[in-house]
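Dissemination and training. As part of the outreach component of the grant, students in the summer workshop were shown how a complex can be specified as a set of sequence lines and then modelled as a single object. The example used during the hands-on session is reproduced here so that future cohorts can follow it. Participants entered these lines:
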Amino acid sequence: MDEARSSDIFLQITRADEETIARIVTRLEFRDTDPDFSRWRDRYLGSLDLGAVDSVLEVGAGTGVVARAVARRVSTSTRVIAEDPSAPLLVAGRDRAREAGLDDRIEFVEGDVHALDHPDRSFDVVIAHTVFSHIADPGQALREMARVTRPGGRVVVFDGDIASWTFTHPDTGLNASVHEALLGTVAANPHVMRDLPALADSSDLRIAGFDAHALAEAGSGSYWLSTADTYVPLAARTGRIHADDADRWLEWQHRASDSGTFFAVGNYYTYILTPG
Ligand SMILES: C[S@@+](CC[C@H](N)C(=O)[O-])C[C@H]1O[C@@H](n2cnc3c(N)ncnc32)[C@H](O)[C@@H]1O
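and obtained this result:
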């Protein structure tokens, strides 16, 4: 973890206040509606032959967006466990699963990916979706995910290369300050997806599949406006940027989007890993 950036709100998720949790719930569920984001998730889920597996574990499951997509694809006898350290996110997850008619298909359980409370080789598929950027020790997390995966099973790590997130703004000084504050608020490990091949090697995992995605919006913003709306005010609340500067930068992004001059981009990667 980059200590200089350790105010990642997800890293301190068990201490998050109600307003922060509410913003995170809205954000995680919004991503389910983004066509690129859900297509990339569905692409790796589609490659996993989920109809034939007995058990799937999602670590850092949040409100269970990915677990619900898994539950729709597996057979009724498949065990789907969604784990997260945040009790309020798990409550929101159970509510959303109930609304989707999937509450009897997903077990929501409190858990920390650094110390999984499961026996060795107990899951066919173990998924971390946008988790590795936000945890204290990605190497330890990957070792734990590898430990609980059966031989021939799959470990999936999907996440943003958060250091690549780029917005435009005519005031380059302000823009640089907002980017620094944003990274500090969003990511404990903003480069971790570049380190995944080496981390996988240390965990005795082999790369069985890899996909690279650029999420870019030009003209009007949707995904990236939601990103900015969620995290820039939180960055201001952590004191990483002055509230007036945050407002000024955000207002400009909205005006740019309204007038068709918005631009933002960030890279995302999917790794499908297999033991041995
Ligand atoms: C960006 S959210 C992703 C949630 C979900 N996977 C999704 O994509 O909708 C990051 C999640 O990691 C969880 N998290 C933070 N620290 C964790 C840890 N030590 N072990 C497992 N999950 C953790 C947070 O509570 C949060 O739900």
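Residues 217 and 264 are 5 Å apart (CA to CA). Students were then asked to discuss how this feature might be tested experimentally.
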